Amino acid sequence: MAPKPYRQGMTLQMSTSTMDPEYAERCRRSLAEEQAASLAATGDWAHVDKDRVHRDWHELYGEVAAAITAGAQPEDEAIQELVGRHYAITSRFYIPSRDAYLGMALLYAEDDAMRDWHNSYHPKMVEFFSAAMLRYAGARL
């Protein structure tokens, strides 16, 4: 299946730091609104095995950290497959729209606790994985 072309407001070179401010705000809003609706509809995600999710994310981020160390690039197909796994894990809570998923990339970069936690796997994790998420969302969501 050929990847979908990038959509309005997205470029191959886009990063969380170069995203159009209005589009970035739309993504932040989408994340907040979709998460709030899902939390309300599911009793605070009662259906999710949160311990399993965190184990799966831990394993995934370890693989991403190793790939970064080995010289991988965010657009590499192997990395995009890892991002696909991340999206699938995230989708255990709710299925985020493209904009909400980009909002998650922004959250990882902008929230101190999220940035520190992700960067504990590798000092460049947030920068690298956010770029990979942007690429994935633009091409596949």
TrEMBL record:
SUPFAM superfamilies: Antibiotic binding domain of TipA-like multidrug resistance regulators. InterPro entries: TipA-like_antibiotic-bd (IPR036244), TipAS_dom (IPR012925). This is TipAS antibiotic-recognition protein. It comes from Actinoplanes xinjiangensis. The lineage of its organism: Bacteria, Bacillati, Actinomycetota, Actinomycetes, Micromonosporales. Residues 35-136 form the TipAS antibiotic-recognition domain. It comes from the Bacteria. Pfam families: TipAS (PF07739).
